[in-house]
């Protein structure tokens, strides 16, 4: 079994929806409602057992219209999960005290967490395993919070080194997105995954990746013990995202198509 397909294996006869992993996502907002649909679709298509979504009512309705399998609630009433995805399409949680308290509670819970976009600021608070998924501009912002003032151009000029610095100083596994995605662990190891297609450069594509990573982390939460394993899972997720786009051919892509394609890309990567 390849290091990628190890993380993409399907259920066996003894499995049920709970043993296949429960992901709880706090994604989407009134400003960016669509990000929740993209992340939730990406997560479902990895084969996770159940996806819960905590979001405003309008966002819940949009997601249910697309994926009625999802269990929806407000963020405060999310319930128990094996892993959490926080942040894609989220307004700045610092502006909303109730939302911030909910995210702090999740960060403190010890469960594995994937942080994207509006929740990247929680990286230092997460007690369990933590994966963060910034693009170059977001990583520059994170580095400022860590006391290393940086511009997006600095990150682009030496991406692996900046990703490793952020990983070492937050304790999180950093997935620095781009045409080549650099995955850094706090010990300083960096794995680089070149995208199979530049068609991934489209709005919402990163929200789909966050959903994929959340879905995979939820499926493997019981056997994820180290940050090195989490980094290996992240590399598999990045390859899956890339394959999902590339298998659609060299044509313009919308992010939801990439999410839909994830299930078929899984089958391709797992081989016959
Ligand atoms: N359909 C959706 O709901 C989408 C939601 N998204 C969410 O949007 C939020 C912001 O993500 P970003 O990656 O845009 O954050 P960035 O930090 O790159 O940009 C923040 C804001 O700056 C502006 N901006 C930055 N670069 C620009 C440029 N070159 N030209 C014009 N405007 C520019 C945009 O208004 C943008 O929203 C995240 O929460 C993300 O998850 C995006 O993923 C796109 C799709
Ligand atoms: N030129 C490119 N070639 C290939 N993949 C890219 C390119 N630019 C960005 N990507 C990928 O597309 C996704 C974009 O994510 P992100 O920047 O968060 O956008 P969004 O916020 O719109 O979802 C990431 O997975 C990134 O690795």
What does this entry look like structurally?
This protein has 272 residues and is an alpha/beta fold. It has one domain: UDP-N-acetylmuramoyl-L-alanine:D-glutamate ligase (3-Layer(aba) Sandwich), CATH 3.40.1190. It is 42% helix and 14% strand. The chain has helices at residues 34-44, 57-66, 97-108, 136-145, 152-157, 159-170, 205-220, 227-246, 255-270, and strands spanning 22-26, 50-54, 71-73, 83-86, 113-115, 130-132, 173-176, 180-184, 190-194. A nine-stranded mixed beta sheet has the order 3-2-1-4-5-6-7-8-9, sandwiched between helices. The termini are close together. The structure holds ligand NAX and adenosine-5'-diphosphate (ADP).
CATH class: Alpha Beta
Please give the order of strands in the largest beta sheet. Answer: 3-2-1-4-5-6-7-8-9
Head-to-tail CA distance between termini: 12 Å
- State the fourth-level CATH superfamily: Ribokinase
Stretches where pLDDT is under 50 for at least 5 consecutive residues are none
Structural class: alpha/beta
Reconstruct the topology from this structure.
Layout: E1 22-26, H1 34-44, E2 50-54, H2 57-66, E3 71-73, E4 83-86, H3 97-108, E5 113-115, E6 130-132, H4 136-145, H5 152-157, H6 159-170, E7 173-176, E8 180-184, E9 190-194, H7 205-220, H8 227-246, H9 255-270
Parallel strand pairs: 1-2, 1-4, 2-3, 4-5, 5-6, 6-7
Antiparallel strand pairs: 7-8, 8-9
Helix pairs in contact: 1-2, 1-7, 1-9, 4-6, 7-8, 7-9, 8-9
